[in-house]
Amino acid sequence: MKATNQNGNDLQATLPKDLETKEFLEKQRKILLDLSDDITQIRDKNDLIVLFSSRIKNLFYFKHTIVTLIDPERTSYRPFLLDPMSSPIQTHPSYATLVDSDFPLSGDFIEAVLDAGKPVLYQMEDVMDLPGSPTFLRINYERGIREILMTPLKSKNETMGFLHMYTDRPGSITDEFISIIEGIAPQISSAVTNIIKNDEVREKEWMNEVLLECSIGLAAVRTREELSDAVHATLVRFNLLRGFSIRRINSDHETMTTYVYDLGVTNATEAEITEMTQGQVPIYDGLQDRVLDSSIPLQVNVDAEIRRGIASQYLFVWKSMGLKTMVGIALRNGDVTLGVLWLGIEQANLSLLQAIGSQISIALSNVLAAEEIVEREREKTFLLGFSNEVARVRTKEDLKNAVFKVLSRVVNVKLAMVNLIGDDNVTLKPFMYDRMLFENALEQFDALVAASNTIDEPIAARVLAAEDHVILKITEELENCPNNPFVQLWAQTGLKYIFAAPLRSAQADLGTLWLLTDDPKCELLQGICSQISTAIANIQANEKILAYKRMLEMENSQLKEQIKRTYNFNEIVGSGPEMQQVYDLISLVSESNSTVLITGETGTGKELIARAIHSASPRKDKLMIKVNCAALPANLIESELFGHEKGAFTGALERRIGKFELADNSTLFLDEIGEMPLEAQVKLLRVLQEKELERIGGKTTVKVNVRIITATNRDLEEEVKAGRFRSDLYYRLNVFPIHLPPLRDRRDDIIPLAHLFVDRYSKATGRKVKKISPKVLHELTSYPWPGNVRELEHLMERCVLLSTEPMIREVYLPNKNAGAETASMAMLGTLEDVERIHIIETIKRCRGKLAGRGGAAEYLGMPATTLHSKIKKLGITKRQYLAE
Ligand SMILES: Nc1ncnc2c1ncn2[C@@H]1O[C@H](COP(=O)(O)OP(=O)(O)OP(=O)(O)O)[C@@H](O)[C@H]1O
């Protein structure tokens, strides 16, 4: 196509005839000067409109003017300035679309203008239907426009846009008109450039103003809700609200979670929204990490990202929501990356977005800091509550309850296990755990709990070596030690981290704590861990105190027994050759550590001799510990001797220290050894051989240094032959035998012993009985004494009690006069005597308690008042029943 002027001449070659005339040039110069003056005044679009609508219109006729600008990519041009007053196309139905359209910078119509580099006049009919012609030509034509003068506007030798001048009167755009327009085109160009620059400055000023306004709002936010509102308001102010979300980086530094969002009107399903706003999205998915790495906002095309292979679910949700382009802005506070702001916008003013991003970063950082303060406060209160609870803990059971309670209140933290270091300082024993956490691998879990672990197990050793705690990422541990059974167990819980910490008290390792979590809140967990350490240390101290207490109680009872019997071995009576031999043996063996076996009939004084040996030995400063093997049920004898661990058998509620341990560095007197069950004999033999023992249910051995003295009234050799006593044990016990002869074989001792006992019981009961009649002495020496010294002792006690005068004149020996009724009657004594003895005995058994529950009156079946009057009537004194 060839552009022509109104006369149909070639534009390049055409010059008006009178153009060369002087007045014409003069006139033109004047017009140009006037217009140039006006143009230099132009500051904004309105000025330019006024220039066209009044100044130029006064000179020449035209209908309306438009200025279009070429886009930076130089592919299209779009309306920049419209003439609202006189434009006839304003009422056209396509006007709205037209003014917001981009017209391609190609096609004959526009290319001819570009090529000409100066005004080109077109007849509408010639150009409007040409291929590639812009739609505004036809629309103008439909509103009566017949000619268009297109003038290129240039800046730095490049066409920046076009001045369109339309007329509905053919021929009204004269050569003079064209010449003037050509003359003022450079000034109009610079006016347009100024306007653009001015607009830009104004836009920037406005932007800064709004940003400042928004920043005031954003700086004030302290809560998540306030942040959401402020971001919302900011985006509305800049007309950028098409849906946004702020994702916050989680403490695992691998995922992000939506913190605040507004999806606007969306067709996404409920499930999609929940997935996107509640779930965790990966940081390193090839998209979000790009945003975080970028120093400027990143505009992404959703489809293109999917095509690139980014498989993150949220991209598909965006797509299904109809979002085509998204802008991701990294939110940072200094060097700390906080998260990403995603905006669903098509066009991006990057510097504006960057400025908004910075403001939102500050706001987010403030909110997170405020949240952190609140969280710290909450944790403090929480820990305070826990520490109050821990202060009340006395037993391990209490602690278990407290720990489970506290952990149930910490979101997303599960107790895997608490292990305690055993007495051997090597084993790590499971103390408490949440078994149901491992419900998918219970068998494996139970096996691990049953097997004893040690402090050298690699992961446990790492934890014990740590200053405060270690956080292990389970997937990494699984890669590093795929065969570690603990790691395998943790992995099946689905939780991401194990927080493991040594439990310590005053630098001493007590055990290890293992917590499973997705979000290791170190400070809180460390706080809980310290509290548990304190509680465990308290419990252990408490247990030790209890054990000492029990030991002291036992020692106390032994001591009482010893005190009760002290006078016995000070006053061993017996001067005949039989007892002399015994004394010789005692002095021979006392100094040594040899095991002694004392034999003799019942009541011959075996225990008395055992105590005499102990008292003469280097161990005399410690208590001799006595165990009566006949007095204990077979099933308890082992525990009595060797002790047991807590839970070793039903009823073993506490750890108990056995008599062997109690007799460490002292003497253990095993009375009635012949009654010991065979099973216990085996254990006893082992302890005697190895000088160390194992508590029942215990896994460690305890070294003991104990001297053994045993006694029996049985013939052990016979017992061995009958298979009731182990021969190997017998030989071990029978190292140094001492035999005590029966009283009937040392009759010379009977009278001194009788006097000793009368004297002792008179003193004890406050009676004045001092002597024994010759008749009684005679009877005593002629009696066979099957119960030996003990029988004599008891008989003399009764005589003292029954005697009403200082001399014992009567003695009631069993079977002395068997069959003789009078004697047996005499032996029983008067009814009063019997009553007195019965009452005294009963009160003794009730440990002196007369009235009330378990008091003597209750057992005697009489009111306490009756008992009191009887005591008075029978002359019973306190000393009689409180003597022992
Ligand atoms: N030689 C003695 N001199 C003083 N008292 C003695 C003498 N022998 C025994 N006794 C006293 O006789 C009582 C019984 O003695 P002991 O309990 O020692 O006998 P035992 O042989 O151990 O008896 P059992 O076999 O029944 O255990 C004790 O009160 C003890 O003090």
Automatic annotation (TrEMBL):
InterPro entries in UniProt: AAA+_ATPase (IPR003593), AAA_lid_NorR (IPR058031), GAF (IPR003018), GAF-like_dom_sf (IPR029016), Homeodomain-like_sf (IPR009057), HTH_Fis (IPR002197), P-loop_NTPase (IPR027417), Sigma_54_int (IPR002078)
Pfam families: AAA_lid_14, HTH_8, Sigma54_activat
SMART domains for this protein: AAA, GAF
Gene3D superfamilies with a match to the protein in the record: 1.10.8.60, 3.30.450.40, Homeodomain-like, P-loop containing nucleotide triphosphate hydrolases
Keywords: Activator, ATP-binding, DNA-binding, Nucleotide-binding, Transcription, Transcription regulation
Gene Ontology terms: biological process: regulation of DNA-templated transcription
MF terms in GO: ATP binding; sequence-specific DNA binding
Limits of the Sigma-54 factor interaction domain: 572-801
Alphabetical list of PROSITE patterns matching this protein: SIGMA54_INTERACT_1, SIGMA54_INTERACT_3, SIGMA54_INTERACT_4
Superkingdom to which the source organism belongs: Bacteria
PANTHER family: PTS-DEPENDENT DIHYDROXYACETONE KINASE OPERON REGULATORY PROTEIN-RELATED, TRANSCRIPTIONAL REGULATORY PROTEIN
Protein name: Transcriptional regulator containing GAF, AAA-type ATPase, and DNA-binding Fis domains
Organism encoding this protein: Dyadobacter soli
Source organism phylogeny: Bacteria, Pseudomonadati, Bacteroidota, Cytophagia, Cytophagales
